[in-house]
Every structure is written in C-alpha cells, then in structure tokens.
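=== Structure Prediction Worksheet ===
Name of assembly: unnamed complex
Input type: mixed (protein and possibly other molecules)
Chain count: two
Listed entries:
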Amino acid sequence: MTPKTEIPKFLARLNRHSDLIEEAYHSGFVQVSGEDEPAARALRIARVFTMRDQGQYGLTRTMRDLLNEHTQRQQRFAIGGNIVEEIERMEKLLFELEEAASQGKHVEGQRYSEDLCQSLFDIKDMISQDILQFDQVMSAKFSDVNTIEEKMRQNEHYLKRAEQLHVAVEQLNRNELHESFNSQLVDEAGRIYRRVIVQSISHWSSRLLSISKVFEEFMFSFREITKETRRMRAFNRFLKEGGQTKLEEAFSQSAEYPVMHRVLPARTETWLDVYSDRGRNALAEIVGDMKPLEQRKKQERHSGQRHQDNAPVSIEEDASLEDLSLFVFLSEVDKADGWISGFRWAETSPELPPSSFLEHLLTWSETECGDEHRVRYIEVDSTALNTANIAIADIEVCRTT
Amino acid sequence: MFDHAINSLLMGSVICRFTDREGYEYLSQKDRMEDANRFLGRIGKRVVSPSGGGAFFLVPTDLGSVKKAEISALHKKILNEVRPVLGFMDLCMSAMRTDATLRPGDQINVSVIMAAIDTENKLRSDLQDLVSSLKRAGGATDRERLEGIITRLESWGYIKTENAEREIYRATGMIDVFHDTLAFFIEHTPGAREYIDAQENQGDLF
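=== Predicted Assembly ===
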C-alpha cells in the first residue's frame, strides 16, 4: 500500500462516516452500538477516533484541531499539544468550572465541564501515546541515526520528553487535584478524572520505571561508546598529524603492560624423523622424486678479454679471512715505502694464523701477483732466496716504484 | 583439548570464540585455565586476557625477562599495525554508519563498505590514506585497495572470513587486544592525551 492509494482511501472513510465524526465533534463523544461499531473501530484504527469507554468514542486531538480550524471554533485556553501545557489548561478549566458552579452559572459550567472532560481524555491520550512511542524507541535502541552528533541531539530530545512525562504523571497525581475532583461541584469531570487518569497512573508509573531503566542503561553504554569512539577518532587524527613518529617513545613505559609482551606467532618448524624406518623411507621417496642437481656452468673470461664498460659486472664475494687479510695487507704495502713482512704483519692479528696467511700469500704471489708488486721469500735462516723447494719462513712484499 | 590449547598459545595465537571456539571454551573454565597456567608457569609463561575479555593469549611470567630481540620484533609489529587497524576501524564505522567501535564478533560486510566508498568522496580519500599507511599495499581500483587492506588485516588475525562468497568477515578477539594497545598508546605517547583533551574541549570530534 503506497501513500498515494492510502490518502483517497482515508478521505473516503471520513466521508463515509462523516455523521459519526460530526456527532463526536459537536457532542464531545459518540456512543456507538450494533451496526456502527465496525465503523467506529475503523475510525479508531485510522486515528480519527479515540476510545473512551465501553462503546464511547471521541475525536483524537489532531482531528478535533483540524475541525476547529475549519469551523473557527474558539477554544478556551487553546494549546499546542504539549502535555505539561495541556495539564495547565486542564487545571485552568477545573478552576473556571468550580467558579462557574459556585456562582450558579450553569450554562458556562456545562461548557467548562465538557472542555474539562475532553482535556482529561486528551491528557490520557497524550501520555499513552508517548509511552507507546517510548516503547518503540527503546526496542529499536535509538539506532536510527547516523552520527554521534545526531545521536546526542536525539538523546537530549528523549531525555526531555521522559522528564516531561515524569513531571506530568506527578502533577496528575497531586493530592490537591484529587481533592478538587472529589468536589460535588465537578461531579461529571471528577468521574472522568478517576476513571481515565487515576486508574491509569499506576500503569503509567510502572511503564515509566521500566523505560527509565532501559534508558539509563542505554545512556550509560552510549556514553561509553561515545567516549571511546571520540578518543579513537581523535587519536587517529593525532597519528595522521605526525603522532606516528612519537609512538616509539611510549615503549619505554611498556614494562607493566602484558599486551606489549605477548608471545608472537611463531613459524612452525617440523623436523624430519630420520630415526625410524618410516621416516627414512619417506625421505628416500622424496629424494627419489627430485631432479638431479645440474652442474653450474661458469663462463670464464678468455685471456686478454676485457670487461666492457656497460656490461654488468659480477662480483663474487669471498668472505674467507685469508682473502680479506690479503686485501688489507696489500693496501698497507701500497702505502708503505719499503718491504713489509707478511709473517710479522699476520702476527699482529690474533685471529689470523701467520702460517695460514703465508700459504695464502705464497699462492697469491705465484698466481695473481702482477707488475705492481715485488715479492721476496725469506728462508728459514733469514736469507732471501729465489730458488724453489726451500723452507720459507717469511714473505716480504713491496710496491714497485 | 589441553595440548591443542597449549600448543596454540605457544605458537602465539590469540584464542577467541571466533577463531578457535573449542580452545576458547576450554580455557574459559576456571579449573582448566589453572591447569594450563600451572603447566605454562614451568616454562615462564602465563595466559592473560585483554581488558575487554573474550580472548586469551600468552605472556612471559616475568615481563622483564623477555629478550630484547623478541620485544623489538613485537614492538615493530605493533608500530606497523596501529595506524592501518585504527584507520580501518574508522572507515568501517563511517561506511557502516555506526558510532560503535569495532568489537570481537562484529560483522564486516565488504560490499556495504565498498558501496559507501563509491558514493562518498571522503571515504575514498580515507581509503587512500589507509593504503598509504600500509607497507607494500596498493591497487589500481578502490576495490583492489580495500581488498588489499582486508587481506592484510586477516593475515594479522584481526578479522576472519565468515562468508567468502558474500564478502563477509568477522572481527576476532585480536580487536580487543588492539583496544588495549590503543589505550596504552593514548596513555603513554608524548602529546597524545593532550591532543585528545584539546580536541574534546574544542568539540571538534565529529
């Protein structure tokens, strides 16, 4: 059903039952029975009628205001639909009724009485509607808003309304009001007050109590969410504005915080069980399926071939101690003016055995030593020799000038 | 179940009802938790929960005894994760139109987030900002960027796939661990608390 089809249907209903509406408007209520009962119920569902008593229906405030507007009927102490103001209006009408009755002004008294009864029904209607709406809002947990700002506005609104309801119920339950409505002067209105208001007060109070509890609980969780969300968003902004670099400084305070010491996810390492036949067989099977290793082809540089300037230069890293030492030793030789003893130089390094270094130096001198360096071998008796098959005690190197 | 829970904790898992229901239920029982702690105590570890509850993880009994390298690795990991996770939570809240921060068990509907990003420029800019806070992340389209972030968060353990076909994920207990981490940083990062207080005073938080 769309609003477009709903409006003609509603207007047709008003038109069909205009006699009942008219009677309710002019008499304040309409007593229905028999064949009018379904029509009155339909008008009640359409929020045109409000049920007052068994078989007795009155117009809802909205409908009456609409008709008042149309007929230009002057309302005594007309109000805009606020409960507190309606209660004030009701009390003024009560005062006027008492005055008119005590002065014997029957016609005026009758009018005030009718208005007072109507006002009492209106108050009942307003409170019941508000409580019903609160129930609906509570069940939805106030969730139909997008932002905290809207939610805060909504909260403020409902808080105000809940407070108004409390105040209204308390006002209606005052002793002096009870006494006034018990007076003989306001006989009819007193009966309505007791039936419509007094009988509903306990129900309203219990509903308001449960609403307050839900409301309080929600407000608490809302405050918590708000606070947390606000802090979170502000902190995010802090990080964006350069706070990220300061996070590391916070770690100095982490000693007492378990969350800053939690055990990190570890990579699982499973060891192969080679001590059982099953493990060994599994390993053999895996190895059997493997492709044999291929000999790495090393492209050697032909003698005389030079690296091109643009060609990628491959550097093979040799991290052996002797190689590194040789590199350092030759640098020192380059800087020195004369001969440098390899044995004595190696002795200065605690990690480098001189004999091992001398072997390395000997290999270098025989294979890689170029024209830049000159080498002399010192025999065991400290005499320099240039012959083969001798016991070498030291090797001295110097830069060719 | 004892060995499963203990091994899982020792491997650094954060056990929650959404990642390991059985392990979580096992450790939720007081006597079994005491049993686990007795065992772990012998190797200098104990089980703790984040302040929001709902998860279990392992910490050393003596927090001062942890090796410097281990602490550095954890701190480095935390530093890398803070901004992306925080940014993602903010993006989720904005896109899913809720003011409640992400909590364990909350559903994350990627298609809803994507639809919101498609219609709001601010969210698109937030997404790009978020991607820039992640190392080795990117993507040619917004969807790829979002998927990259989701994958990263899942690999860190903050969310898990609930329904791959419908692109629905669920926040895990790691989110509560993250809330504690956040509280720690707000408390101890120089200038953070003052910044937040100033923002609150200015009423400039929305």
